[in-house]
Design goal:
Blueprint lengths: L3 H7 L6 E4 L3 E5 L7 E7 L14 H17 L7 E4 L15 E5 L9
Antiparallel strand pairs: 1-2, 2-3, 3-5, 4-5
């Protein structure tokens, strides 16, 4: 498989990891959109949220637990952060491996309601 995020999980592409456990990896985005910009991925390859099966739901909870821990460790839990998942080409998803962007470190623009 030619997935850049799978290669980061394997360690064949370098990254600056800020979180790792047996199921989830968090690493600094190479094109940060905020002072704190961490990409959080499952180690299991799932293309996007539409590919999440019933048995993957605990993994989604693991990703959210990792996000909460990363936010605390990066100092943005109290001031606030955004957790974004893009699903599909029209959303702007560029890497088709399920991932979330944790953004913070300054006042973010208002999200679309």
């Amino acid at each position: 498989m030619d997935c850049i995020f799978c290669k980061i999980v394997e360690g064949t592409i370098p990254s600056t990891k800020v979180f790792e456990d047996e199921r989830v990896v968090g690493f600094l985005d190479i094109r940060p959109a905020a002072p704190v910009h961490v990409v959080i991925i499952p180690k299991k390859h799932i293309s996007d949220m539409n590919g999440v099966e019933e048995e993957d739901l605990p993994l989604i909870a693991d990703i959210h637990r990792a996000a909460r821990q990363i936010a605390v460790e990066r100092g943005v839990a109290e001031s606030g952060y955004r957790l974004v998942n893009n699903c599909g080409p029209d959303s702007g998803q560029e890497v088709f491996h399920l991932h979330y962007h944790l953004l913070g470190g300054h006042k973010l623009g208002l999200p679309i309601a």
